[in-house]
Amino acid sequence: MPTAVAVTSADMALPPQDERTLPAAVLQDVDQHPLERTLADVQMLIETHGHVIVVCSRAVPAAVTRRLHTIRSILESDRIALFSPELPPLGLAVLARQLRQLASCDLGPGVLASAGRLLTHYIHAGAQLGSVARLDRVPVGLKSHARSWMPGSQFGVIAHPEPRLVKIAPDATLRGPEFATWMLVAKGQLQSDWVSASLAPAWSVQGLREVPLPAESADWWGTGKLIEFCTYLPDLSVLYQLVSSVRRSRCHWCGIEVIGDRCVFCSATAPDHAPTHENRIPAR
Prior knowledge:
- This protein is an alpha/beta fold.
- The protein has eight helices and twelve strands.
- The chain has a six-stranded mixed β-sheet with strand order 7-6-5-10-8-9, with helices on both faces. The protein has a four-stranded parallel β-sheet with strand order 2-1-3-4, with helices on both faces.
- Strand 6 and strand 7 form a beta hairpin.
- The protein starts with a strand and ends in a 25-residue tail after the last strand.
């Protein structure tokens, strides 16, 4: 069976991108259910799929993160990868779906889990906000803070890959991706068409779809008056080419094949190699 890709709430399990996109395993309210029940659910996923990649937003309650680490510790399993990159909730949901797409391919669990770090570089995630007074995940200057208290002020914010904030005006611009993408839009309590009518055409997106706003978004952005957006690569063949073109190696600790210098499952990093005869600094 393919590696399972799990999310911590149903709204982070986006609809399939194509017919090959595998369903997400939803670990709903893991901090609310009895520990024994959640342990059994995760154990069943491991027995069925071999390995589990849990994609978790950094905006979830701390109790959720603690419970996930507790489960992994009790099971004493290197088959559970806990992945929480610095992405807003909608961008993280997109990344989880891309991993679900790739899970249908001939990629080992270590390569698939490592691919998450690679694919984050191709995601542009941001939001249109009615206030930045409580925004603490993107640098906000004093002028922007002051402007946020003015009635009607709105801001365009990029959180990833490079933080950027502008006050929305006719000449306001935000740097977008330099490659062809699609865009997802999730509307909160803010009423505006700036993202779809201005930003999307400026970024030359190939298509735009609307999805429900993730529950963690208001907490992540510091306000419920927002419209979250994210651009991404939708084509499975492009995603697979990106991942398969990267050099792979074996984790020296658990032996699984990975991309990069750290195993997502056992957290081991590549050992430092002693200098060879050719690259030693000669003694004076």
